[in-house]
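Re: How this chain folds, sequence and tokenised backbone to follow
Notation: Tokens come from a learned vocabulary of local backbone shapes, not from coordinates.
Start of record: The labelled sequence and token lines come straight after this line.
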Amino acid sequence: MKVLVADDDRAIRESLTTALEINGYDVTACADGVEALAAFRTSRPDVLVLDVMMPGVDGLGVCRVLRAEGDRVPILMLTARVETADRVAGLDAGADDYVPKPYDVDELLARLRALLRRAETTTDHSDLLVGNLRLSPGSRRVWRGDRELDLSKTEFDLLELLMLNAGIVLEHHVIYERIWGYDFGPDSKNLAVYVGYLRRKLGHPELIRTVRGVGYALRTS
């Protein structure tokens, strides 16, 4: 698997490159967003690891450019910012996941593996229908009524999981394991952020129900 790493901190860039190569990844390392975009177009990677804060074009800018072009390559953000608003900005830009600095290498590798698993082509292309919500796994498109929704990769995967289990309450740890490949524990806000984004994009009437202290379920009534 090919990984493109972009971070203006040379020490972080080199240590991350070494860790990834030890684990069998083919790594292209860049010092800023401009270099990352050029490298991406020269040799398309399977996944990107982008620092949020970089000179010139930052990680958020790289995300926005690729998503605007319709490219759904998995993107993992590295950020020293830990506030919810900053995490939301990364998700809004089109990132699939984020890891705060200083990061744990094993956790970062686990999240990369999860992103790559979700990027694998599914063999079941049957459309999923729940009420007036339709999801096409083959084309990775979603409609609510006649309105097509623009979802990030992780939003799509989360919605697909909920639709496959419509009416069933999925516990937090089950969703984390299925979507991220790792249970980040009760203090993680990743899932709540993505559910919030999905609810906003799906509109009313609300389909995703919260079962406090347990998890989430997709229900039409």
Observations:
- The chain has eight helices and twelve strands.
